[in-house]
Amino acid sequence: MNSSRESPQGSDLSSLRKRITKVTQEIMDLAKEREHLSEQISKIKLSKGLLLEDLARESQLLGTMKWYAKRIGLEEKTAVRLTNELIQASKRVQRKKSNFKEAKDFLHSEEVKSVAIIGAGRMGRWFGDYFSKLVSQVTIFDRNWDTASILARELGCKASNDVFKALSSDLILLSLPIRETARIVEKFEKAFNEKRSKINFTLNEIPRLIEISSVKGPLLGSRDGRRNDGSRNLDVISIHPLFGPSFDFSNEGTIIYVTSSGDEVGAGGRNRRNLRFIKRLFPSFHIISMNSKDHEELMALLLGLPHALAIAFGITAIDWLEAREAHSLITSPSMGHLLRLLQNVLSQNPDIYFEIQSLNSENTLEITHELIKSVEKLREIIKQGNSREFKLLLERIRGSVLARKILES
Length: 409
Hints:
The protein has helices spanning 13-48, 55-72, 76-109, 122-132, 145-155, 178-194, 196-199, 217-228, 269-281, 292-323, 333-346, 350-358, 361-384, 387-398, 401-408; strands at 114-118, 137-141, 158-160, 171-174, 208-211, 235-241, 254-259, 286-291.
């Protein structure tokens, strides 16, 4: 690698750029080597029960790199930024290693050896990848055989388009559209009640399912009805991952554990057991528990409102431009933020987005009504030229919990 640091043969722009590319590649190779060393350190720390974070060591390394930067004539700010990023990268690698070991050990203690992922979409891929690092047997199920087999090959696991075979797995995860999730659970519960002997289950061997739908009403509502008719329900754990398919395993995300409205997590062995199960299964995640009513109201704010804002912005901008026969758009930073939000919405499956809005319609309609009222209020303030009311409006936002969240981010 020393050859890249010799005097350049020629000073033309193209050759210099080639050297820049080569040096950058060498830096990447060294970063990868450093990552490998971090993994080895992580193994030693885990075996000895040591903390992953060592602030004294970080401070020592940073001081050494400042000294070295001065010695070779590198700007200190650059050295500090690079060293801090490398330290954070090492901590991410070590956290990931620790979290996977903890989850893997937990599943082993629970005798979970096989996992079925039903749904080969983007989130199905995420969970398939996650569980393939924890157990020896993961099977991807999808009604479309080609879709299931392609994902299975990528993850190095099995594929099937017969979802009822999933019932022989130790753990089942449903990654399906909201209505389809409710239908599959109902079919599984009928199979459990009517064909228990064929599926080779006893009353004490209730299959455990995890479902991840964004709106819980259709599922929990239908299950409450079947619970009242005396039928035996499967052990379905409802969670809502507040992250998308590009989420990195080493980050600290949030998962909501959802119970039926009126259920108390502190009451009833099943809720306590399932909440504990999710916490142990996803050790790097912050697990929040709430009932379905509170969850649906929260989803109107977290999903319904941003979706509505993005769609309304897109329609308004298009109508405005078309009315003026404009064929190009000059953007600004503020416009750019809204365009990225709109781009994110447009990149998603519209059927899923419509389900999120329509199957939580009571809360969605309420929050979109509040949005319309807010726009009308702002419009009236501007129409009246009332700067005092405009400032009071902004001051109210600045003093709210929303503003504090903005500052945190």
